[in-house]
Write a structure and sequence with these properties.
Residues 28-69 form the Leucine-rich repeat-containing N-terminal plant-type domain. This protein has 328 residues and is an alpha/beta fold. The chain is built from 4 helices and 21 strands.
């Protein structure tokens, strides 16, 4: 008798569960937004987006690249990944109506024009990947409203103007990729207040200023591991305060106009593995401590005015990074 009651109760629970699933519809706001995006995208995406419901309806699966989750009585779109499919045209503004997005990945397409200021509406966004497009103009200051953002990939575009200091308003930011754009001005020292920032890449832009200006805030960049400032127009020298970035592993200063001697303290950054000083205006000698550093694998120094007898450590090559969070 007990088993029969248990079986009946299980059947009722199963029926109720299935009933919830059947009647759990996608939020109309998200359905409308995805259909607007669909109307603006090229055939390479549209042909795989079939059915009326982007989260799946009946026998139809969710649209390719669309991830949904259940919130109460509705399903909402939480991830949109449409990359490497040759999307042509402006950034689809309707994306900013998907208010529950945590990941937006549109990289390796042919998107043009600016990032719309409405991007600031995506308060739950953690990962924004727009690299390898043809996006232009200045980055809107509203990007500083994405308080949950941990990864920001904007490299290999045509962004111009200054790097917005509003990026310093992103308390969870860990990885910031801005290389291969047309940014001008100085790197905002306010970025040094980001307590979780591990990777900062502003290489291959048109930036000016000095390293001293970048690290002038006391206690800045406490967890920074990788700093890429290469291929810009930085001047001045390497300040002794740089040695305070004790978690630094990669320092890339190649192809700037940085001068002076290499401070002894830099050789004592405990975790330093790769140091790129080439094609600047450095002089003097390399402190012996660099050659005794327990972890330094590469030190590239050509194209400077170092005294004779100074030799590089290792061979300049593509870096192999083991941190899976760093590789995206």
């Amino acid at each position: 008798m007990a088993n029969r009651y248990a079986s009946t109760a299980f059947a009722v629970i199963l029926f109720l569960s299935l009933n919830v699933v059947v009647h759990c519809k996608t939020l109309k706001r998200d359905v409308k937004a995805l259909n607007e995006i669909k109307a603006s995208l090229g055939w390479r995406v549209v042909y795989s987006w079939v059915g009326d419901d982007p989260c799946g309806d009946g026998d139809l699966p969710p649209w390719s690249g669309v991830t949904c989750s259940t919130q109460g009585d509705y399903r909402v779109v939480t991830e949109l990944e449409v990359y490497a499919v040759s999307i042509v045209g402006p950034f689809p503004v309707a994306v900013t109506n998907l208010l529950d997005l945590t990941r937006l990945d549109l990289h390796n397409n042919k998107l043009t024009g600016p990032i719309p200021p409405q991007i600031g509406r995506l308060k739950r966004l953690k990962i924004l990947n727009l690299r390898w497009n043809k996006l232009q103009d200045a980055i809107p200051s509203e990007i500083g409203e994405l308080k949950s953002l941990t990864h920001l990939y904007l490299s290999f575009n045509s962004f111009k103007g200054e790097i917005p200091k509003e990026l310093a308003n992103l308390p969870e930011l860990r990885y910031l990729y801005l290389h291969e754009n047309r940014f001008v001005g100085r790197v905002p020292p306010e970025l040094g207040t980001l307590q979780h920032l591990r990777h900062l890449d502003v290489g291959s832009n048109h930036l000016v200023g000095t390293i001293r200006e970048l690290i002038r805030i006391e206690g800045c960049f406490p967890y920074l591991r990788n700093l890429y400032l290469n291929n810009n127009y930085l001047t001045g020298g390497i300040p002794t305060q740089l040695a305070n970035l004790t978690n630094l592993e990669i320092l890339h200063l190649s192809y700037n106009k940085i001068s002076g001697i290499i401070p002894f303290g830099v050789a004592h950054i405990p975790r330093l593995t790769h140091l790129y000083l080439d094609h600047n205006q450095f002089s003097g000698r390399i402190p012996d401590a660099f050659y005794k550093h327990p972890f330094l694998k590469e030190m590239y120094i050509e194209g400077n005015a170092f005294r004779p007898g100074v030799n590089p450590i290792g061979v300049h090559k593509v870096l192999e990074v083991s941190d899976t969070e760093f590789l995206f």
